[in-house]
């Protein structure tokens, strides 16, 4: 606890539980209220998993997952998924069929969609940083691409249809997009405003949009600084950008990755930081740090799970953790 106000969100005599371990890079948890399971990605393992609520069992769900990263569920219960390997966004219908939502913008292939959230108007918002061009998280650019300027990596090895499905090199800025139910795709926050966008979410009333800007990829000379920004939602656009928090705690950058809001408007944010600061940070709607959950591993992303949406499900590097809280998640997935 950092601030006494955090007490109201805690359950007495409860503990943090490690549900499963052995993953290569756990990411993108999302709760399915219809199926009563959590889907999450092992990005580097190229497997998507499900944690089944009723049994407490963790099973492989999609193999290969094409390096799936961020996941969510829309208001119709369809899974939304970012696939690093094919550098695209898809959704899965209830009958198991898949539809590609976006793989290009203005005729140019996307970089590597990372995180994704739905809006009640039917739109889908997602970020498109460069990280999927790492060999371990997707596929490298062809020679001459930004992530492979000297041709060090052989993009043909294990490409599984890249070029036929998905871009072969990164050519777009790292924008944040809004997909409209009409099928149009628009930049909602350009890269020059928020470089290397990563996690994103809305406030419970959908009047505020939050966006995380993360650091440069190994081949980049610049990127984000690990801040969270807030915007006013104005129809299909956003305005009035301001810094929500710099994510500094005791002089330590608790590097944010993914986040989810609760019904009180607090943001629960994964922390990539040294031991003692890694885990989850919790910020109230005014951007004040009110609480922390310390884990022995860095935490990439979280969601609220369970039939009552009162369990914090944490994807933390090699392991999955869960902690019951006295508040409920605010949005689908």
For the record, the count of structural domains works out to 1
Q: How much β-strand is present in the residues?
A: over 45%
Question: Averaging pLDDT over every residue, what do you get?
Answer: 96
Discrete helix count: 0
Describe the global form: globular
- The third-level CATH topology is Neuraminidase
Helix percentage range = under 10%
Give the topology string: H per helix, E per strand. EEEEEEEEEEEEEEEEEEEEEEEEEE
N- to C-terminal distance: 26 Å
CATH architecture: 6 Propeller
Are there runs of 5+ residues with pLDDT below 50, and where? Answer: none
Rg calc: 18 Å
Derived structural class: mainly beta
CATH superfamily: TolB, C-terminal domain
The main sheet comes to: 6 strands, antiparallel
Description:
Strand 3 (47-52) and strand 4 form a beta hairpin. The protein is 0% helix and 45% strand. The chain is mainly β and 333 residues long. It has a six-stranded antiparallel beta sheet with strand order 4-3-2-1-26-25, with no helix packed on it. The chain has a four-stranded antiparallel beta sheet with strand order 5-6-7-8, with no helix packed on it. The chain is globular, with a radius of gyration of 18 Å. It has one domain (4-324): TolB, C-terminal domain (Neuraminidase, 6 Propeller), CATH 2.120.10.30.
